[in-house]
Amino acid sequence: MSEENIQVEIITPTSKVYSGSVESFIAPGVEGYFGVLPRHAPYVVAMQVGEIKLKGVGDANLQRFATSGGFAEILPHKITVLAETAESAANIDVNRAENAISRAKKRIEEGRKTWDIDRAHAALARGFNRMAIAKKKL
Ligand code: ATP
To answer: What CATH number corresponds to the domain at position 33?
Structure first.
């Protein structure tokens, strides 16, 4: 492995979503977006709903993923993301996200007596995030 690359694995409870070598990594930490370059000091960070961006080796384009939280372990040349969910931008089902948004909005309107409102807000945030990433141009 080149000293100037980072091996990245993005793993969810159901699948390995990405495995490859990158030049840089950006992800949504609970305290804000963070970026990692090769040789970074080791640490572990909790993540939230947002976008993971990978810049591939010698590749001008970013690879983009929607995620909804989890943890990332940063080592000098390896990053392991244990994500609650992660979908590459191309694999996001826009209709499904739209349906999830409508369902969550309806539950928020119907209110706390009927629905778990915190859960509905979290579902809404996941839906908006997926829509934003699916529709973003590279
Ligand atoms: P839904 O109500 O549609 O299941 P959700 O936000 O509750 O949406 P999650 O619990 O975040 O769904 O994810 C469950 C699984 O479904 C995960 O594997 C996730 O990657 C996948 N998933 C959810 N929504 C989408 C989508 N719009 N496109 C692609 N995969 C999705």
So the answer is: 2.60.15.10
Residue 124 near residue 101, CB atoms below 8 Å: yes
Residue at 97 is within a domain: yes
Report whether 68 contacts 35 (CB < 8 A).
Answer: no
Q: How many domains does the chain have?
A: 2
**What is the atom index within ligand 1 of the atom nearest the CA of 94?**
27
User: Which of 68, 89, 110 corresponds to the end of one domain?
Assistant: 89
Residue nearest ligand 1's atom 9 by CA: 85
Instruction: Enter the pTM of the model.
Output: 0.94
Give the pLDDT confidence of 79-117 residue by residue, as tens digits.
999 999 999 999 999 999 999 999 999 999 998 888 899
Rounded to whole angstroms, the Cα distance separating 107 from 117 reads 7
